[in-house]
Structures are given as structure tokens and as C-alpha cells.
Design brief:
Helices cover 61% and strands 10% of the residues. The protein has 298 residues and is of the alpha+beta class.
Length: 298
């Protein structure tokens, strides 16, 4: 089946960029006007950037962009152009917004209020961006890549990174501020979970299509997920159908949409929550991946 011409700048994509813009500005507001003035940090590579800025000075926005740039390059070939474009756009706008807001008076000076409301605001901004298929932190890109090969969720990988970062923050900001920062992280994490509908929660996807071999191959290649192929029949069309079944995370739903759009396959897709997974639905070694890629979907 010939591929349909893929349009990057569709109306939906432009709307997604608008929402990412809003999310980046909200996140920068939370960080620059609430958290940083109260000597608190974000998690991930952005937290590393704040620590570096505290120790050596310089432009925080520029440091954040430079620190995250290698992770964008790392994710370019693995996660697709559209995802990396959204992530890069969000990071650039986030860095610029931090520089713009750096000269303004902080909104909140009370530490406890800053912890709660800074975390909420940061969670809302990041949640919007994640829901639209982007991210503000290179740690999330690494987490997705690790998640493709290991039985660790994106959230677990990010959490492990952040524990190390907040541990380092104890020596830079002091134990009290590091603990407040950790509390902010938990607040923002729960808000992100609500806004983005849980980017670590499992989702089951049923894809009804005429062929599906190309879709299955791309899902395996870019998401690292195996696909089960079932036979079906259309009631109206009276034609044979292929039903592809796969389990992904909330974070990967936007990448699945990109795959369907890029392949140009006229598919019908349903995605719903999965309460529990028994068994392993993620391949763990390059060998298994290679074997599955070489196997023809029949």
C-alpha cells in the first residue's frame, strides 16, 4: 500500500503547538517566579541545570537548553521527527520564557505556599505538554528509551533519576530546601498525572485495518511494543480485516497517532485504560527486537 503524503503542519499539529506554548509559559512561570526564588529546584535535567546555575551562574535558560540538547539528538531517530520537534519546540520556548521572567518580582515568598502552588502550576504546564506529545526534560526521553528495553515504567526511571538529583541538591541548597523541592516534585507529579490522564498508565490499543503489517513494524521499531494480529470481517464492507492489539503507555499514545498518520492507513482505532498487566509486553533485548522485525506479519 502506498504511503499517503504526510503533512507535518496540519491544523491539529498547529493547535498542539499552541497548547505546548501555553504549557511552556506556565511551567516557566512556576519555576522562575515561584520555585527558584524560594531556592527550590525542578526534577530531571532541568533540576541539574538549576544546580549548575546556582554553582556557576550564567543564563539559566541557555544552560537548560544546552543540557537537554543531547537528549533531543538521542531521541531523534528512535522516537520520530514529530515527537522530537514538539519536545524541541517546548524546550526552546521554555528556555526563552525563563529568561523573560527572570527580571520579574516573585509571586510567592512563603516557602510552604511556593511548594504547593509552584508544584501545581508546574504540573499543569508539564501535563499539557505531555498530553500534546512533547516534553520539557531530556530525562523523559531517556526514560522512554529505557522503558522500551527494560521492564521499568517511564515514571520509575524518572523517579530514580530525580532521587539522585535531589540527593545532590542537599549539598548545594541544603537539606531543608532539597526536601521542599522533593515535596514539590510529588505535587507536580500528581497534577501531571491528572492533566495528562496518567502518562505512565497502561493503555490498550485496538487498530482495525486492511493490512496492518507496516503499522505493526513501526510500532515495534519506534515504541518497542509487540503487536498481536487477529483476523476480522467488516459487516458493511464484507471484507477481511486485520485487528492489531498492543499495550502502550499514555505517553506513547501521541507517537501511535503519528505512526497511523504517517503510514496513511485508513484505520479505526480505539484506546482504553488497562487496570492491570500480567506478563511482559515489552521486549527486553535487541536480539528479540531484530527477530520480531524480521518476522512477517501474516
Amino acid at each position: 500500500m502506498a504511503k499517503k503524503a504526510y503533512k507535518l503542519f496540519s491544523w491539529d499539529f498547529c493547535l498542539s503547538l499552541i497548547l505546548i506554548t501555553i504549557g511552556a509559559v506556565i511551567s516557566a512561570t512556576a519555576l522562575e517566579l515561584i520555585l527558584i526564588p524560594n531556592s527550590m529546584i525542578d526534577g530531571g535535567m532541568n533540576g541539574v541545570s538549576i544546580i549548575l546555575n546556582t554553582l556557576f551562574g550564567g543564563s539559566l535558560g541557555m544552560i537548560i537548553f544546552i543540557v537537554n540538547l543531547p537528549f533531543l539528538i538521542l531521541g531523534y531517530r528512535q522516537l520520530g521527527k514529530k515527537f522530537v520537534f514538539k519536545a524541541g519546540y517546548g524546550m526552546i520556548l521554555f528556555s526563552i520564557s525563563l529568561e523573560v521572567f527572570s527580571g520579574y518580582t516573585p509571586f510567592i515568598e512563603d516557602t510552604l505556599l511556593a511548594t504547593v502552588y509552584g508544584g501545581i502550576l508546574l504540573g499543569v504546564g508539564c501535563g499539557i505538554i505531555i498530553k500534546e506529545g512533547g516534553c520539557l526534560d531530556g530525562t523523559e526521553i531517556v526514560a522512554i528509551l529505557i522503558n522500551r528495553k527494560k521492564s521499568l515504567s517511564v515514571g520509575q526511571v524518572v523517579f530514580c533519576f530525580n532521587i539522585v538529583i535531589y540527593g545532590i541538591a542537599i549539598f548545594v541548597l541544603g537539606a531543608e530546601r532539597a526536601l521542599y523541592s522533593l515535596l514539590t516534585y510529588f505535587v507536580s507529579y500528581k497534577v501531571i498525572d491528572m492533566v495528562s490522564d496518567g502518562f505512565n498508565s497502561a493503555k490498550a490499543a485496538f487498530i482495525i485495518t486492511d493490512d496492518g503489517s507496516e503499522i505493526a513494524k513501526e510500532i515495534l521499531k519506534r515504541l518497542g511494543r509487540t503487536v498481536t494480529v487477529l483476523s476480522g470481517e467488516g459487516i458493511i464492507s464484507h471484507g477481511d480485516k486485520r485487528v492489531l492489539y498492543t499495550v502502550i503507555t499514555r505517553f506513547e499514545v501521541s507517537i501511535l497517532k503519528d505512526i497511523l498518520e504517517e503510514t496513511g492507513d485508513s484505520s479505526f482505532v480505539t484506546v482504553f485504560d488497562v487496570s492491570e498487566i500480567i506478563g511482559n509486553h515489552i521486549k527486553k533485548s535487541p536480539y528479540v527486537k531484530k527477530q520480531l522485525e524480521n518476522r512477517q506479519v501474516s
